[in-house]
Amino acid sequence: MNRTPAYxxxxxxxxxLCTARYVTAEQLQPAIKIFEDWGLKVKLxxxxxxxxxxxxxxxxxxxxxxxxxxxxxxxxxxxxxxGGYGTIRMIxxxxxxxxxxxxxxxxxxxDVTALHTHINSMYEIPTLHASMPxxxxxxxxxxxxxxKKALFGDELNYSYKNTSTFGRSGEVEAEIVxxxxxxxxxxxxxxxxxxxxxxxxxxEEVGEWLYNxxxxxxxxxxxxxxxxxxxxxVGGFSELQDNEIPFGLSYEEIIWExxxxxxxxxxxxxxxGHIADNRAIKMGVNAVLRVGxxxxxxxxx
Length: 301
What we know:
Layout: E1 13-17, H1 29-37, E2 41-44, H2 59-71, E3 75-80, H3 87-90, H4 97-101, E4 105-108, H5 113-123, E5 127-129, H6 141-152, E6 156-161, E7 170-180, H7 181-186, E8 200-206, H8 210-222, E9 231-238, H9 251-259, E10 266-267, E11 281-283, E12 286-291, E13 294-299
Parallel strand pairs: 1-2, 1-3, 3-4, 4-5, 7-8, 8-9, 9-10
Antiparallel strand pairs: 5-11, 6-13, 7-12, 12-13
């Protein structure tokens, strides 16, 4: 059975809500204008303008808002307003039955990785790793255009020159999964744990300490998550931190150390993550990855 959500058409309604940190309706205006320019209608969730500590309302409100959007037949796609922290706190309170019976695109990245991994592992329904409304006006035109293409069902094609010292050439077609490294690590040994066997893994990170990236990558290697991958795509690793006594390895060296003895294609510098050029990736969907002097990535409808 095809579990891919229906792609959007002009006139469709998308819903914007908070699963993590709070956001105001005013902060969403640039994104709302972009969506309306695409011919879409926008419905805001009850978590927009809600505030409980750092969150967009308490855990129950955020879970109920997502459940309501899953059950709302008018809403054809759900866009998480922002990341931060908080999705893991409410995920077990969400009723996914409406989503299972009527899949719709769920959009977000960063903290929303908890939903990507959960939905992929539990329900095998594709989701969309892409820019979120609160910062969409700071993204490149290519990033915004990729979100539109992904939502409306156009083929995704990205290519860039391979400038990294590290990586491994090759070509592979397989399902792609992943997201933020910290969240992938967080959901290990839970019902939301990501299954990586025979898949392309995508990882990105922001604001993390180099030693902690090393620790999380060792966790993935020692739990045999890496050895059976079909490919590894490393996106943006931005605003990284180091101790007064330097860790001594770059993030590329840290990651390469864990996968250099395997034989699958590996690329660095992919345009996705906490960077301006955050291209959309359909998680749970096959992708073709080619790594050589240049790197290309494509996903069909």
